[in-house]
Design a protein that fits this description.
The protein is mainly alpha-helical and 65 residues long. The protein is built from three helices and no strands.
């Protein structure tokens, strides 16, 4: 379990998901939970967006190492 586990869970992905898989899932979930189309007032959208940004940061760090 790492500090990114929660972010993968938010995006409904396994922790070994690739960058492109994360991106595809993000796009799918954003369409589903966008504040303009969703009933939850954008709450899920914010969580999804935050998780995606954190995971992209993780992938960047992984590339540098």
């Amino acid at each position: 379990r790492n500090k990114y586990s929660e972010h993968f869970r938010t995006l409904e992905l396994k922790e070994d998901a690739s960058r492109s898989t994360v991106r595809q899932k993000y796009i799918e979930l954003v369409k589903k939970h966008h504040p303009d189309t969703s009933q939850d007032g954008g709450e899920n959208f914010s969580q999804i967006d935050g998780a995606y940004k954190m995971l992209m940061k993780k992938f960047q760090e992984d590339q540098i190492r």
